[in-house]
Amino acid sequence: MSATEALVEALRAAVSDPSRVTTGDSERRLHSEDLTYHAGRDPDVVVYAVDTQEVSRVLSVADEHEVAVTPFGAGTSLEGHVIPLQRGISLDLTRMNDIISLWPSDMTARVQAGVTRLQLTRAAAEHGLFFPVDPGADATLGGMAATNASGTTAVRYGKMRPQVLALEAVLPGGRVIRTGTRALKSSAGYDLTGLLVGSEGTLAVITELTLRLQPIPEATTLTRVSFADIETAGEAISSVVSAGLAVSRMEVLDEWMVRAVNNFADAGLPEDPTLLIELSGSRAAVDADLADLSELLAAHAPTGRVTETDPTAQTRLWRIRHDIYFAEKAVSPGRENRSTDVCVPVSEMAGALRASRELIDQHGLQAGIVGHAGDGNIHVAILTDTDDEDEMARARALTDALVDDALARGGTCTGEHGVGLGKIDALEREHGDLIGLMQAVKRVFDPKWLLDPGKVIAKPHD
Ligand SMILES: Cc1cc2nc3c(=O)[nH]c(=O)nc-3n(C[C@H](O)[C@H](O)[C@H](O)COP(=O)(O)OP(=O)(O)OC[C@H]3O[C@@H](n4cnc5c(N)ncnc54)[C@H](O)[C@@H]3O)c2cc1C
Question: Which residue, by CA, sits nearest to atom 39 of ligand 1?
């Protein structure tokens, strides 16, 4: 019997239904790659777990057989996170999709890791609540916690970390731990909940999450405003943020990106750098802030401005924004999208947006800029032909230059997508002096270095 056959046999004995352990080519291929330019690799075996005990037994088998385990949620992460670099087991959590409890009076919920954000938001809506983190994709909450995801609404509600009150997780080897409580705050010891959020599947497999919910706002408006150039749009971003208005989303698209969405979604937007600014809260607060917003924007000489109060019109615009990844790809079918993800202090947005466009042009690449402007998060979507070595090298050089620019402005190499395998070098440039400490933390959780190896930090030479 080969080592893989022995592994598969042990895994089949570890789950209640052996058909959830599969070595079929199509299942392995589905768990081999993400949506981006990163080259995929098939796992040896895919396991669909249905509860914490199964996750524990799978990690125990992996430990005995010394094979790698890569947790898999919805597979929407963008830095090669789900690629099983050392093959082994791809552990799919999507069938762990029960909303275990919803406490409307506490505005909290406890869910299994495979519940998706829209599934939770639909359940919460019955109580006038919603789950506020919105990365666009309908990702699993376990995967979103693992990447410390954010998205359009982080300007108001923050990223995943502040939403997560407690976790149940399984350590390599199979030990089940519980961190945090249902209370809204705690100072009880080291913040292991906060450490596991953002650990990108390298420290533990999250099996359950206790999450905060938010009340659905009474009123919402969406202002679409365009400017003569991207730098002016950046200046407008800083003045709106520093005015402290009831902004719940603020997105920026450069001219290239507006052209892409016009072509893809027949959006009919004026082809200038554009901001989408959502205000939400009580009707009185939104009305008052809308008047202030108009005044603030006027000072930046907008080339066009429309405020939508009709929910259908707002939903249409947000749909266009959420489909932007596919609009980008449609600009040059066949090319892969390499999405960069730097974040700078908001006061640096004007300079960072201008520099992003200049760097794109200097590198001679097809790329557009989009960003969660309200919290200084900029994505440059670079279209690359993965068979064209020169184009791939220029895309890599552009990514590095954008990271260097962000670091020079006091920012970070990743605002939300995480490190995965695509940003390991960038993390070393940003926090080189902390890599040893991070490796030591990883060793405490995962002494055999079996959980998602090759991601976030390199294994030190033993
Ligand atoms: C069109 C599009 C737009 C996007 N926009 C944004 C955005 O605006 N903001 C943003 O933050 N992200 C964005 N993303 C990225 C993506 O949605 C997030 O990274 C998401 O949080 C990943 O969740 P997932 O369920 O798909 O996890 P996966 O991609 O399956 O996994 C992500 C990582 O987490 C690990 N993991 C998964 N589940 C668990 C678990 N239960 N326990 C431990 N580790 C686990 C995996 O091993 C992997 O390392 C976007 C993606 C797409 C495709």
Answer: 143
